[in-house]
Amino acid sequence: MLRSWDKHVSKKYTSRIAESSATDDGICIARDCWGVLLNMLSIILLGSPGSGRSTLGRILSRRWDIPLICTGDLLRSAAEKIGPVAKAIRHTIDGGNLVSDEIVNHLLASELGRPDCADGFVLDGFPRTAAQAQFLSDVLPRIGASDPMVLQLNVSPEIAVERIQSRVQCVGCGRAYNSKLWPSGHPGYCDDDGMPLVKRTDDVERSIATSLRRYAETAASVIAHYRNANYHVLDAGSAPGTLLETVEGVVAQQQAFRFALA
Ligand SMILES: [Zn+2]
Fold it and tell me: Quick check: pTM over 0.90?
């Protein structure tokens, strides 16, 4: 039995999963028992706009060397393509509306089928609705991630608004900074690749209230979906380093539990 998130061991099985055939929804399924044996570190980040999801997502992604899948980035990238789906996404976003569960689920499923997700992943911005949460619960067991860690970032509306107002993003790698809370070391430019930092167009003042209201409309049903899951509430007002320590503590605890069971 594989124990913990042992990269060395689990990498041996990655190619096995990658060789498996894909289903209609793009999910790559291991046809034998390896998917069940793999202990993936799959993390779902929940939290309102301004809760620091993407910042924590990047930190967790680097800490455990697993991909960060951000729904916002997926939609922006899909909208730049050619075709009816891209056109529908552009039309929806330009109209200030939420893209349908069907499209978002499809994009997410394609990402989860990537071979580099075999050891785990961090989801930022998914699920946003109860229907998306159910879709994810149906899909995860098929890729060996039946017990994802769900982290709920709780933040006050005042802090969320302040963070959104001072948020900037690198035009190159997409890394998010906050000019007040966690600024770049080189004002106006990204620490990672030196590219300029810009305010995201959907961060304009008038959209902040709408974003927070929309999140509140669906958050309760998503949280209810994970009530009996591996669910943890974090104080998103804490510094990113403190949050990482908290998550590391939870992971270590669960690793110890799995060792004990194995
Ligand atoms: Zn960058």
Answer: no
